[in-house]
């Protein structure tokens, strides 16, 4: 079997809110075709137009070529060797960041092909088992504490036993407003529903330590990414001083990056985004986390391709904690899959069909595809 085409499909809502850190408003979907008629699907959560260019770029010289050119004619079942081939063939301009994120989306599609060709779900290829995973409802902070609390109530009514709120306006306007948000959510969740807090890396270490101490009475399940992703020293200071678990990792996309974050930053929970890391790297990242006694959760705020990939990954590692399930109402994220991932009583089952176990809806792709 050989790869005959690698496509990067950029989907975007007609109107987006440029003031919000909401990655559910667009998506870059990867479609890999083969001469056996098997099609694999992946996704990249990064800057879609940049990742698309990395995939489609023509040859400049031996060390500068797009991923499509690198992969055409190759055997899609050789996932490990193809990862190395992509990495080495882009080393002149890659090795991290957007290039690795683009590689991750390709890697997901290759594993989808592999599972379909072998007639097995990806978790089975990774040595996992068909478990159910507890999921939490992942939300943007709303513009008022009252609207945020209403979102929390909606999540509980839907059966979730954990909720997370993140990003603006939280953390930007002082402690008093932050406490109003936390108190509004805790009034709804009480002690029976976990409350995760995502700060959006806006504080320095001293501020984060002060805020975590102020938040101690509210028994937060974790505090996520309060510092700049490069502040490993600050993360170490915070992790040692805070009573709450500290979670981070969605900004990392390499094994080396997670090694540093876990071993130097001393975080408690490593958050791996499959659409930025891919299966081939994610399994190695989980080993590093386990060696250091850390739990692993996924990061996911995009489509069901990401959700399905995260489920297969978490079902295949011994230190999985919980599944992030984004609930922003954008039509791309909510309607892309023809067979969407369902949450029942706060749990999600790993797909049993070969490959990822989900297939995109061609009508949604056509409706939101950015052409030209």
Features of the shown structure:
alpha/beta; Enolase-like, domain 1; TIM Barrel; 2 domains; 3-stranded antiparallel sheet; globular
Structure in words:
- Helix 6 packs parallel to helix 7 (175-189) and helix 11 (274-291) runs parallel beside helix 12.
- This protein has 372 residues and is α/β, with parallel strands linked by helices.
- The protein is globular.
- The chain has 14 helices and twelve strands.
- It has helices at residues 48-56, 67-71, 79-89, 97-118, 122-125, 145-157, 175-189, 205-214, 232-241, 255-263, 274-291, 304-314, 331-335, 362-368, and strands spanning 3-12, 26-34, 39-44, 132-140, 162-166, 194-198, 222-224, 246-248, 269-272, 295-298, 323-326, 347-349.
- The protein folds into two domains: 3-119, Enolase-like, N-terminal domain (Enolase-like, domain 1, 2-Layer Sandwich); 125-349, Alpha-Beta Barrel (TIM Barrel), CATH 3.20.20.120.
- Helices cover 40% and strands 17% of the residues.
- The strands form two sheets. Strands 4, 5, 6, 7, 8, 9, 10, 11 and 12 form a nine-stranded mixed sheet that branches. It has a three-stranded antiparallel sheet with strand order 1-2-3, sandwiched between helices.
How do the strands and helices of this protein lay out in sequence?
Elements: E1 3-12, E2 26-34, E3 39-44, H1 48-56, H2 67-71, H3 79-89, H4 97-118, H5 122-125, E4 132-140, H6 145-157, E5 162-166, H7 175-189, E6 194-198, H8 205-214, E7 222-224, H9 232-241, E8 246-248, H10 255-263, E9 269-272, H11 274-291, E10 295-298, H12 304-314, E11 323-326, H13 331-335, E12 347-349, H14 362-368
Parallel strand pairs: 4-5, 4-11, 5-6, 6-7, 7-8, 8-9, 9-10
Antiparallel strand pairs: 1-2, 2-3, 4-12
């Amino acid at each position: 079997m050989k790869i005959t085409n690698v496509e990067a499909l950029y989907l975007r809502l007609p109107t987006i809110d440029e003031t919000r850190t909401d990655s559910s408003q667009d998506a870059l979907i990867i479609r890999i075709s083969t001469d056996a008629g098997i099609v694999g699907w992946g996704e990249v959560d990064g800057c879609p137009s940049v990742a698309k260019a990395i995939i489609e770029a023509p040859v400049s010289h031996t060390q500068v070529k797009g991923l499509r050119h690198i992969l055409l004619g190759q055997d899609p079942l050789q996932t490990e060797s193809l990862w190395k081939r992509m990495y080495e063939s882009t080393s002149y301009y890659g090795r991290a960041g957007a290039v690795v994120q683009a590689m991750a989306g390709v890697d997901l599609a290759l594993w989808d092909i592999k599972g379909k060709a072998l007639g097995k779900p990806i978790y089975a290829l990774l040595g996992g088992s068909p478990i159910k995973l507890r999921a939490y409802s992942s939300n943007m902070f709303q513009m008022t504490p009252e609207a945020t609390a209403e979102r929390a109530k909606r999540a509980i009514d839907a059966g979730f036993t954990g909720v997370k709120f993140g990003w603006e306006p939280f953390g930007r306007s002082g402690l008093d407003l932050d406490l109003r948000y936390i108190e509004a959510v805790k009034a709804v969740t009480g002690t029976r529903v976990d409350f995760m807090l995502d700060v959006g890396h806006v504080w320095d270490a001293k501020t984060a330590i002060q805020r975590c101490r102020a938040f101690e009475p509210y028994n937060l399940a974790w505090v996520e990414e309060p510092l700049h992703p490069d502040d490993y020293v600050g993360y170490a200071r915070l992790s040692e001083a805070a009573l709450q678990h500290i979670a981070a990792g969605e900004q990392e996309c390499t094994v080396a990056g997670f090694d540093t974050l876990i071993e130097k930053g001393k975080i408690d929970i490593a958050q791996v985004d499959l659409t930025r890391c891919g299966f081939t790297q994610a399994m190695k990242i989980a080993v590093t986390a386990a060696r250091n006694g850390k739990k692993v959760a996924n990061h996911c705020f995009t489509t069901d391709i990401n959700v399905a990939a995260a489920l297969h990954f978490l079902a295949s590692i011994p230190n999985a904690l919980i599944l992030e399930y984004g609930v922003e109402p954008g039509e791309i994220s909510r309607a892309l899959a023809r067979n969407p991932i369902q949450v029942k009583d706060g749990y999600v089952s790993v797909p049993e069909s070969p490959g990822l176990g989900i297939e995109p809806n061609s009508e949604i792709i056509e409706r939101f595809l950015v052409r030209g």
